[in-house]
Task: structure prediction
Amino acid sequence: MDGIARLREVRGEERVSFNDVADHLVDFADRDPGARDVLDRLARFLAEVERVDHDHENDPQRGLVGTPETDVPTVSG
Result:
């Protein structure tokens, strides 16, 4: 099972704040400094994703029409 599936299985029903998520990202980056750039890109993505519809099953792009270089999702359609 990959990490995302494991997260959904173990903690998928929990409600947490983005401050909590940010704290966990910082903790992980402290343990694995080589992941800091990817975590920073993920954090930027999560900061902007509020404006994107997340109907993953029905939209193959899932609002992800931006590029990894911009780290900012854009609303499709």
Notes: The chain has a mean pLDDT of 80. Residues 17-77 form one domain.
